Amino acid sequence: IHKIGLRLPGFWIDNPSLYFPQIEANFKLSGITSESTMYCCLISVLDQNIMQVIADLVRNPNLEK
């Protein structure tokens, strides 16, 4: 088990089109390539309101890598 030393900002509900490139850059700089790890890092910073909107995706993630 590896500890991830990455701290993502909270989700930018007003501008998700800029948020995702920023977190992708953070993953790249941190050497994170696993889709599962990226998913877990992202889910960990989403608040309850966002989680309710994407509940189906959270319950059934499509993680192929």
TrEMBL record:
Residues 8-62 form the DUF7041 domain. It holds the Pfam family DUF7041. InterPro entries: DUF7041. This is DUF7041 domain-containing protein. It comes from Parasteatoda tepidariorum.
